[in-house]
Model the fold of this input.
Amino acid sequence: MNQDQLSALIGKARADGSDTLDLAKEDLEFLPPEIGSLVDLVELDLSGNRLSKLPPEIGNLTRLARLNVRNNQLTALAPEIENLVNLKGLFLQENQLTELPPQLGSMKGLGRLNSSNNHLKQLPSEIGNLTSLTWLYLADNELIELPAEIGDLTSLKDCYLQGNRLESLPASIGNLIGLTELQLDNNQLDRLPPEIGSLANLNVLYLRGNNLTGLPPEIGGLTGLTWLYLGGNALAVLPSEIGYLTGLSGLYLENNQLTGLPTEIGNLINLVWLYLEGNRFSKLPAGVQHLTNLIQLSLRSNSLTELSADIRGLTALVFLDLANNKLASLPPEMGNLTALNELHLNGNQLRSLPTEIGDLVELIDCFVSNNRLTSVPATMGNMTSLERLFLSDNLLTELPSEMDDLISREIVLLTGNPLSD
Done:
């Protein structure tokens, strides 16, 4: 759209008293001052253009409730933006902003603010004036710290700060008692303030890809949590207070430095997903056997040398991943896991399988490649639900005749074995 066409469109909108104007994806590089004449506008969409700035006259649009300037080339916002006191939604993502102006604090009715994918290095203290804000999205910027005034956003329910450079959180974060989701993945946090335990209404907490070496005992105060993501940190221990999070459905602890879990983990009786891969466990952590509602359990890429008979209690398991450990044998109690659909045992040191493995009649995918099996039990012929059975790269010289049907269905992978004809 050229400037003459744009001027004509603005003139028509003014004559019609339009309350919305859609200028998205019009390849605009410049917004003329006449935009300020559209004083009846309630919604203005300028997304997907090439605007590097907004004219001061933007401040004349005092009835504006929604302003979308995402995916432009803005490097700053005009201070006159402070006049947009009726704004409810401001969308600034995917620009080149290095800061938000202090005048932003005048928008006390603002409910949603998105300034993700910019180059923000800090936030103005005036952000604390946005007491109506319920949704804040500042992901993928360059923030190193948050102002203490962030704690004044007491209406906030969803806060997204992933992909920044945050090294710590202010104690005032504990004032955000209305928060239900807090996203802090991929920052540089090495600790959490004790005050985080005050967020009793938090449902989901993301802390993956940080530098956490421990959690404060106050974490036990997050009694509303249903999902907790802690993967990719440097956690060596968890506090016993983790056992207070009895509403958890999913606990993700992959790629840390854990050698054990507190026995209180057994209190998490509503846990359905538990991911422990990439840690340093040498055996099934104590307390896990009490998690009788677990559907998915991953202990892939640890240092397991044994699997205790306690596994028998996990009868709801549908998915079990024990790949890339040091297991030489499995307990007969594996046969109790009759709900299993998928079992990963590849990359261990297994020399045999218990005959009870044939009781896993619901198993669909079974991965036992890269072990030291010299034989497999005839009972595997009972596993009629199998669709894939990987036995490659073992030491098998023959298979029991009871498996002939599985083999005839061409679902058994046997490459890399010294099988006789």
User: Anything to note?
Assistant: Residues 50 and 173 are 36 Å apart (CA to CA). Residues 3-16 form the longest helix (14 residues). The two ends are 74 Å apart (CA to CA).
